[in-house]
Amino acid sequence: FNNCTYGTIAYDDNRGLSGVDGLKLECNNFDFDYRDILIMSTDADTTGGISQLQGIIGTESASNEFNNPDAGDDDDLNEYNLFNDLQNVSYVRYVSGANNDGLVEEHGNNSLSNSINLSSCQANIELEMENPNKNFDGIDYFAYQDTIAQLYQEYYLVVDGGQTESLLTNVITATLLDSGLIHEELMSHSPNLSDTVMLSAIQQEEAIPPHLLTEILSANPSAAKSRQIQDRLNQRLLPLLPHQRDSIDQGLYHFSEREVLESWIGHYRTKARFIKHRYFSELLHTHQDPFEGILNFSPAFMELVDYYLLTDLYLAVGRTQSARTFLESIPEEFELSESESSRHNELTICYDILIRQSKDRSDSLSTDEYSQLFDIHRFGDPMSKGLARSILRGKDEFLYHEPLTFPRLDDLLSEKRLHFTPPENDLEVFPNPASTSLTIQLEDSAPGVKQVLVFNSAGILVAQQLMLDEKTTILDVRALKAGQYAIVVLLESGIMFTERIHVLE
Q: CB count, 10 Å around CB of 206?
């Protein structure tokens, strides 16, 4: 896939694509039997590649790289070539079971009407070979924008039946006496309720009893795919029972008209943004001063410049000092939204630190600088978070080595006495059979004895043990009451890894 660009349509975080040494498809949501993946052109019956034995029972994730088999082990059935001349491809899966045999193609609308009870992942992929002589005159871009506008008109009529504001008002003001009417009204607009309305319904713990809430969310497949909705369900004072949550999770295998429209909108937005990004990127790379290059943009494309696009492109080619100068001029050129202002401030902090380090010829950090970068790394915009992470990586001077006590997790975090979680080390926590214990594992081994600490939602330390080997330990959770807990792994160097779990009754 040299000189190849691609975009994907996906839901939540259950599918992934990466383009290192070939195209890698990753599925983190399946629970039955073996499955194969086949990639085919939508314009012809050409087979682009095939993956066998994609996953097995009990495996939590599976992935496959479509590479040239001549480059590796000929006996490796998971390596196949995906031809670069495919222009449009569909994600196709092989189903072997009582209800379906053979290939089931997932078209652009991601319809699963013929395989409702099957676990699967869907994604559409577009591959376009780069052509340096292609002229981006904006015609395709504006055609895509017109299509997006038409889809949005249909989308707003479909979601909540076009009555989002009135539905939201009725849900917020509802009492227990209104529960039957609210349930009937929300069900009448299912399966296309908006996340906003469903989130409000989840908060109405008195007006909408758990059994009615379960029916509403089960009738809306997007509830199972929304991380925000799942998190809000975990925070309820009256948690839903396991079988009720399972009923809602069945939405993973269904797709509503609302979700189909969202997929197509995302599809055309990706294509339109690719045109803009390619056009600006070429011009910025052909001028010594990217600002001077902007002056040569055609009038039509000057209207397309937005804050995110400029920062993405300019900061990728600009040097530290010129990038900081560029950031200073942005408020004069754009009227920034709240999220854009937040990103702008975070980037400014990062570049101020880089400039200071350059002048001092040192990569050291002051306590205030470390604190600022730590917050950006945890809560910042993806672009500023990546920049903060690159500055923080490898810094050891602010690790605390004194003995630490943990009376309250909130106190520990607010004092910022611990180093950020390095990106190359990840903490994984997953239940063992019968759910009586947890496996705590660090992705990369770290030297020395490690402490495993468990805090309840009030920040009180409720369990601890040592992690004696390099990577994993088993934690007995039978003594933990139902609720939310934070798992903290502390290294001798002071580096901390955290993960949150939810223990059911």
A: 10
